[in-house]
Amino acid sequence: MGRLAQTPPMGWNSWDCYGTTVTEQEVLANAQVMADRLLPHGWDTVVVDIDWYDPTARSHGYNDGAPLELDAFGRQLPAESRFPSAAGGRGFGPLADRVHALGLKLGVHVMRGIPRRAVELDLPIEGTGWTARDAACTDSVCTWNPDNYGLAHDHPAAQAYLDGLVAQLAGWGIDYLKVDDMLAPYHHDAVEAWATAIDRTGRDMVLSLSPGTHLSTEHVEHLRAHAQLWRISDDLWDRWEDVHAQFARLARWAPFQRPGGWADADMLPLGRVGLRAERGEPRDSRLTLDEQRTLLSLWVMGRSPLMVGGDLPTSSEQTLDLLATPAVGQVLRTASEGREVVREPLDGGELIVWTARSDVDSTRYVAAFWTGEQPYRAALPVSALVGHRDALAHGWTTRDLWAGGPGPEPQTTVDEPGGLLDVDVPAHGVAWLALDPH
């Protein structure tokens, strides 16, 4: 597991635009745009979110008692009405082949536990004398999704079922598993069982755990030992209050970020969202451009995985250009020690400053955020950004990372050891800068 997710994954997830209803054609359309426009900047993972096995899936909710597509051993199969290439028991194999041919990885969402329908039918567990009823814990149920019962991890049937399910996913060529209903409450035994099942396949698959409501840093060592990603909040939508709430969470988790184990601040509700989603009607993201830059800058400085939720083919050129900004992928992959160094309530808002350092040269990164409703001009001591010793050693030039590149001229030069860096920050916005020594 240690060789996986050495940097935070970057990709697309179907949830924010299609909820439970995404189709094969829509997945492939998003994969094509990612390959054409975003892959050169690090975006390489396509994730099919929840209920791909429900032929009756609908917008705005889940179907209790839905006729889930299952194989003879109680394992979910893609609904052929939505994923026609799955016909004949081929599952996601053909879709994975097409995604891989584009140079991308394929991920799927799976719920904790075993389908209730498999238990009601008492289907056998492949290669054993047990059945789904032996594996199920009917007292352990998700509070928001009716598809599954939990697994009775004190019975060997539970691990046998999970081993078979994950082996099937691996056989289809799945690269990334988003397993839900794992962390709120924290299902210690389920986390270990999923990790064991993945290890037994022999295939490299990133394990991402959700949802993350009130997730405590006390779990960090257990999480690192068994998964690569873990959510640190409930679902995030295109509302400023949702973005603002992530400042405190990412600041709490930033000291724990390291290769192979990443706290995940949730998907990026950017571009065209809500087409057939859980919440709201079809819309362009309600976040302003400045708020979108704040979201991306904060996620990158906090080293959160980046999973964009908008429908890429129908999103604006402005959104695609924003995601393709070179600094987004570059800083996410090559910077470390991201942390909040200033958080001050002032008249009209909060000034929040994050710093990080490049792992490939002497560049430092600074993100100065302002949460107020009007623009703000901040004067930041250079020593507060790079440290007293480095502030004394040499001067610094700055580059605006949202400008898309280094540009012909530096934005500002600060030569005095006690000098101030003046930055103009929009409402709900960010000044995201690279500081280069000279």
TrEMBL record:
The protein's GO terms of the molecular function aspect are: alpha-galactosidase activity
Q: Does the keyword Hydrolase apply?
A: yes
Catalytic activity field:
Hydrolysis of terminal, non-reducing alpha-D-galactose residues in alpha-D-galactosides, including galactose oligosaccharides, galactomannans and galactolipids
Q: Which CDD domains match?
A: GH27 (cd14792)
Keyword Hydrolase carried by entry: yes
Supply one GO BP term. Answer: carbohydrate metabolic process
| Matching InterPro entries | Aldolase_TIM, GH, Glyco_hydro_27, Glyco_hydro_b
- Superkingdom of this entry's organism? Bacteria
The UniProt entry's sequence similarity note says: Belongs to the glycosyl hydrolase 27 family.
Name of the protein this chain belongs to:
Alpha-galactosidase
